[in-house]
Amino acid sequence: MKTVLITGANRGLGLAFCQYYLAENWHVVACCRHPDSSTALLALAEASPHLRIEALEVTDFAQIDALGAKLSGIPIDILINNAGIYPDTASNALGHVDYAAWQQAFLVNTLAPVKLTETMLASLHLGRDKLIVCISSLMGSITDNTSGGSSYYRSSKAALNAVMKNLSLSLQKDAVGVLILHPGWVKTDMGGANALIDADVSVRGMGQVIKEFTLTQSGQFINYDGKILPW
Ligand SMILES: NC(=O)c1ccc[n+]([C@@H]2O[C@H](COP(=O)([O-])OP(=O)(O)OC[C@H]3O[C@@H](n4cnc5c(N)ncnc54)[C@H](OP(=O)(O)O)[C@@H]3O)[C@@H](O)[C@H]2O)c1
Q1: For the whole model, what pTM was predicted?
Q2: 173: CA distance to ligand 1 center in Å?
């Protein structure tokens, strides 16, 4: 059985990824900030012996190190850096920039995925798939940006894309792959009720892209339906 580690696994796309990989008969390490109150995950764990819940606040790098030590020696096939935040508000325009909120966006959306990659690399080397998946956003595309706004979110995802493209090149020699995915506009707490697709549709699409991944695609920015996206 293969193993996937998912961050932000208690709701939205992270929870849908847990359901998807359990249905595919994988071991799932589901990371969330508050396991005791993650009722959807606890219900899944009750129904499946293949789900392991771990506490993880992704901005707490000591906690990431401790998780790495706890999982040491256990093969992880796929790491899914899914946890993310959208801290922009209408009142954050120039003249009212909230630099603390912007820093937090970079910490959660950009630096934490790198720290998780760095920490879980030894376990990924033990796995068969050796794949790092980052849930980015088309809003991180500079080419696609024709409407402006959302500077904190856009810039943190653009930086995630840049650093993950970089890592894909340095990890290629070790046959470790990196996939940068846009999930679509998805009905979650972040995407809102007007979004275009349900989380299970998005995750089924991304699951197929992940299944068909080959190292030649490492570092590409890909939509949930398999289309290559512009930087
Ligand atoms: N929904 C969309 O339309 C859309 C579009 C493009 C990209 N994305 C990306 O897809 C990913 C998942 O988004 P979603 O729509 O599922 O969002 P969501 O419903 O808001 O869920 C976000 C998840 O991230 C977790 N999280 C946030 N900050 C965290 C932290 N500091 N430490 C640990 N976990 C943290 C949340 O945990 P708590 O419950 O503890 O807050 C939650 O599990 C994000 O990276 C997002 O940027 C979403």
Answers
A1: 0.98
A2: 31
